[in-house]
Design brief:
Layout: H1 2-13, E1 25-26, H2 30-45, E2 59-67, E3 71-81, E4 87-93, E5 99-121, E6 124-151, E7 157-170, E8 175-178, H3 186-198, H4 200-227, E9 236-237
Bound molecules: 2-acetamido-2-deoxy-beta-D-glucopyranose.
Length: 238
């Protein structure tokens, strides 16, 4: 017991925080940082109840509201699956750790929930409400993250994500499944279904941003809760 206390104390005094999800890296060692971030993110996405960090894979999003020029939609009670399979690459970090940019490849995202939709899907009128499911989504996302540095009550420096900007590009056909289109009129629904298969790229580009924004907002909040618990002085070494 004394021995383990002593060892714990020595570790703390030595600046080694074995409880941290990020293993220490030198500031200019980008491959090390990339590996540690890619290893840590799935653990954050799984949720850490002790730290009050909610699960973000699967991620529950209560409401996604979109008022696009010719189309309005609301998704309720949505669940997004698959962030744990996303991999970051090509990280670039500025010298004072306030800007990070890079790319993410997400190979198998999917999403389901309840929808309400009315308007025009590119050229085709669409209207309906019921269950929806989107399958087989893979995306390439370019991102820029702006961070603030905050001095904690422990006197150490913590990072805080202020803003994420992103550009998401769908890579493979996404299967759109909207149940109960046009109040169950099957012939009209079949036209939309065929159109959606043929025009998956344009439709994804049309629909995607309100979904990304709602989802990334929640991801940001979860990652920030984690970032508040660890000090960069212990992880990013000069
Ligand atoms: C969303 O889920 C809540 C809680 O289960 C439920 O009360 C609500 O009716 C659901 N909303 C829709 C639009 O299905």
């Amino acid at each position: 017991m004394y021995l383990s206390l002593l060892i714990t104390f020595m570790c703390l005094a030595g600046g080694v925080f074995s409880s941290s999800l990020f293993s220490p890296c030198k500031k200019n060692d980008l491959p090390c940082i990339e590996t540690t971030v890619n290893d840590a993110l799935p653990k954050i996405f799984a949720g850490i109840p002790e730290l009050g960090i909610p699960k973000t894979d699967p991620q529950f999003v209560a409401v996604i509201d979109a008022d696009l020029t010719a189309l309005k939609y609301t998704f309720y009670n949505s669940t997004i699956y698959g962030y744990k399979n996303c991999k970051m690459s090509n990280l670039k970090i500025n010298d004072d750790l306030t800007k990070i940019s890079g790319e993410v490849l997400c190979s198998s995202l999917m999403m389901d929930g309840v929808y309400e939709m009315k308007g025009r899907l590119i050229t085709l009128p669409i209207e309906g409400n019921g269950n929806y499911m989107f399958e087989g989504a893979s995306f390439h996302v370019d991102f820029d993250i702006k961070l603030d540095k905050i001095k904690g009550s422990d006197g150490k420096t913590h990072l805080f994500i202020r803003k994420i900007t992103y550009k998401a590009k769908p890579l493979t056909p996404i299967k759109f499944n909207f149940q109960n289109l046009f109040n169950g009129k099957e012939d009209l629904a079949a036209v939309v279904k065929k159109f959606a298969q043929e025009n998956w790229l344009e439709i994804t580009l049309l629909l995607q941003d309100p979904i990304w924004e709602a989802s990334l907002d929640q991801l940001k909040a979860a990652v920030n809760k984690y970032l508040a618990t660890f000090a960069i002085d212990d992880t990013i070494l000069n």
